[in-house]
Design brief:
Elements (H helix, E strand, L loop, with lengths): L2 H57 L5 H28 L7 H28 L8 H19 L8 H28 L4 H35 L1
Helix pairs in contact: 1-2, 1-3, 1-4, 2-3, 3-6, 4-5, 4-6, 5-6
Amino acid sequence: MPGGARGEAAVKGSEGRRHGGLARAWDELRGRSARRVIGLVQAQIAVARTGAALALGAAVGETDRSVARARMAEVEHEGDAARADLVGALRRVLVTPIDREDLFRLSRSVDDVLDQLRDYEREADLFGPDDLTFAAEPLRALVEGLDELERAVQNMIDDPGSVTAAVLATRKARTRMGQLRQSSLSELFAGPLEMDTLRRRELLSRLDAVGQRLGEAADTLADAMLKRSH
């Protein structure tokens, strides 16, 4: 091979290796960015789950209501910090696993879950009925729904096909919360109208608002994954 041809081949080989190295570095950077965002979303959901478990403990009598209310305020602040970490990261990272707008919506819905839980726990402490066990099953459904939502987020990169099933399970948990509210109200209104009846109704409505926010989070993630597949 003439010297000029050998030189040209060497240059092309060098350029190819350089471009290949840049492509690998870019892929690695994209992967790290996406996984970092996923970790931050999971962290926010985990804080919301802590709040749901705390409310459940108070409903079944494992935790004193005033203690649960004070601790819930702390958990809500932890949720705000987790959301702030995510929002800050979204301003810096180059690549996200789903659309940024959808990530903001998902984060806001999870934050709303925790805000509604804070209000529920405060109201339960201020004017709640003596017996809160009626709230236990809706709160168990909420814990399960948040577990499924976290699982869906975790699998966005490595197993996107499983996200649909986890989102569906989250939606079922939200539906279960609504059904439990309806059955509880039916039992309440079948008896005498007393002050406890009104108190329970208010708390059931608050839990239904929690469920609505959970459903919004599931819907946001489902829409985001659909857009990503196109």
